[in-house]
Amino acid sequence: MKKILITALFSVASLSLVGCSTVASLFQERDNTAELAIVTTDITTKALGDTTYFPSDIVEPLIDQSFATMAREYKMYATYFNICQKAPDDAVCEAPYKTAMTRYKQTKANHDVLSLLWTSDLKDIEIPPAAMNELGELLVKLDYLPVNKDLENNKELEKNKDLENSKAQEGSKGLNSNQSGKFTVEEISQATYYWMQDKGLPKTENILLLHEVLIKSEALKLTI
């Protein structure tokens, strides 16, 4: 069941024109599933872990920014929509209107997933290997890739580098450090750790799905 939820969340976070109804129904199904209801012994530990990885005083303002981005995109979309209802032949009813609609749907889908992740017990989900390419593209938009900071002066990041090399050698579902496309998994991980550092988020051994969705929120804000 958890694998189904992970797949659903990743799909909504990655596809620009998908809403959150499927994810919401899966969350409802999860709540009614006895299998997940049995897992109660690690609630306290998990809650502490969520707080450690994602302090609310840092994450909640980022979620507010995500909502503000969605609201601005909706305002633009609604403006074009009203114009095109009255004058469908207006020039804005072609590319500008379609662009505004797409951006609104992207920001809404992203904010919906972000809100669901934040209010659920799934904050510890690791980013799916298939999402590394998209994460790399987002980090490029935010100027975290190519990595242009001084790695030699950051011993902590060097330790993370060694950890990523070790994990790549073990092979996680066939993914290795040379299979993420333009940038290696190691480079994407290093850039993500820099992003965490800039946001004041504690670094983790693994990149979590919530990290990716937060990064996507910031990248979407640049399109306004």
Concise account of the structure shown:
The chain has 224 residues and is mainly alpha-helical. It has helices at residues 2-14, 21-31, 34-38, 43-53, 56-86, 95-118, 132-141, 155-170, 185-199, 209-221. It is built from 10 helices and no strands.
Q: Could you please describe the fold and organization of this structure?
A:
This protein has 224 residues and is mostly helical. It has ten helices and no strands. It has helices at residues 2-14, 21-31, 34-38, 43-53, 56-86, 95-118, 132-141, 155-170, 185-199, 209-221. Helix 1 (2-14) runs antiparallel to helix 6 (95-118). Residues 11-50, 151-155 and 170-180 have low confidence and may be disordered.
User: Quick check: average pLDDT?
Assistant: 75
Question: What is the SS-derived class?
Answer: mainly alpha
Q: What is the tally of helical segments?
A: 10
Order of helices and strands: HHHHHHHHHH
Silhouette: elongated
Beta strands, count: 0
Q: How much helix is in the residues? A: 55-70%
Unreliable residue runs: 11-50, 151-155, 170-180
Radius of gyration: 19 Å
Percent of residues in beta strands:
under 5%
The rounded distance between the terminal residues' Cα atoms is: 37 Å
Largest sheet: none
